[in-house]
Amino acid sequence: MKVLIMIKQIGCTYLSPNKTIEEIIITRNENRKTVYVYNFKGISFRLFLSIDNLNRFFKNGDEAEKHFLTEEKLDEYLVKFIP
């Protein structure tokens, strides 16, 4: 059985010129999940599995589910992610 993986950015909110929140849909076969990535100056990428977790990060300082120091490491993780 062939596995079909699609990763698509469906939104990007700029908090400042070098800080963004990206909304990404990951589809693997029939399963789909929306995740959120806080990109801090291109040197820190925090992955959140829900909008509530993202909000808690900004309001309470709660940690992200995953933290990456390069975009390449984030991409490697997203390709293997199972929704």
Can you give a write-up of this model?
There is one protein chain. The model has no long low-confidence stretch (mean pLDDT 95). The protein has two helices and five strands; from the N terminus they run ββββαβα. A hairpin with a 2-residue loop joins β1 and β2 (19-28). Strands 1-2-3-4-5 form a five-stranded antiparallel beta sheet. Helices cover 24% and strands 48% of the residues. The longest helix is centred in the last third of the chain and has 10 residues, at 51-60. It is α+β, with helices and mostly antiparallel strands and 83 residues long.
* DSSP summary: helix tally: 2
Structural class: alpha+beta
Global morphology: globular
| Mean pLDDT across residues | 95
Q: Can you list the strand order of the major beta sheet?
A: 1-2-3-4-5
DSSP summary, beta strand count: 5
Which range does the strand content fall in? over 45%
- Helix and strand sequence: EEEEHEH
